[in-house]
Design goal:
Layout lengths: L17 E6 L7 H13 L7 E4 L13 H6 L3 H4 L4 E3 L12 H8 L6 E5 L2 E5 L8 H12 L5 E5 L14 H13 L4 E4 L5 E4 L6 E5 L14 E5 L4 E6 L3 E8 L2 E9 L2
Parallel strand pairs: 1-2, 2-3, 5-6, 6-7, 7-9
Antiparallel strand pairs: 1-11, 4-5, 8-9, 8-10, 11-12, 12-13
Helix pairs in contact: 5-6
Length: 263
Amino acid sequence: MPIAPEHPENIGAGLPPIRLAVAGDVGTGAPAEWATAELMDRAEESLEFDALLLLGDNAYPHGDPKRLGGTVFAPFAGVLDGGTSLLGVLGNHDVELGHAAGQMASLGMPWRWYKRTFGDLLLVVLDSTEPDSPQQLDFLTDALETSTETWKVVALHHPPYAAGSHGSDLPAREAFAATFADNGVDLVLAGHEHDYERSVPIDGVTYVVSGGAAKLRPTGREAFTEFSASVLHFVTLDVWSDSLVVTAFFQEGVLDRFVLQAG
């Protein structure tokens, strides 16, 4: 599979200091999900991942944590067996029937929202099933205002900007988008739409939808859409001190790649 480890802006620079893999809406346990997980595992032969970030809807249909063995831990065993850490996000299916607490415990999530740092990158995980929580907004604002990292990335399930079957999630946009823009967020990662989408920068923020790890729905285009495709895929983040390289991979190779520059 033609996955190149080099920095797209500096061929031959070697592996970046930090690399994250991202997959959304994995919770089927079906052959299509296994194919995406196997693609990611093959990629790790040349691209070592520091973390695997799952963007919610980790277990269909109602978030039963007993299903995570078949939807997360078995399909992605090859990715997680080399010390790659697992980072979870709660999706709308994950919080049904009171399963949120069980999902958090199984996935090692400290709470419904939390933050992690990876070298020059701050990752803030939000729970978009509770967009009106004042405690969550306070946490988000504090995490962003006190950050000294070069890159600020936010992960949540419901996309503030999307052009797929569901469209933009307006509660998530109203709750969070202004705070993202006011505090220098570079990239927002979301799932929920079963496709891949990249926005033009919106108030300085690039929005990526990656909910096509296991099943697909038709995608579309809006005025803010830079790229969209309904195809099974996963995403990587290559974290450099001067740039953040985001790549979407599908079975044929690179689906989309873009570079955010520091400063």
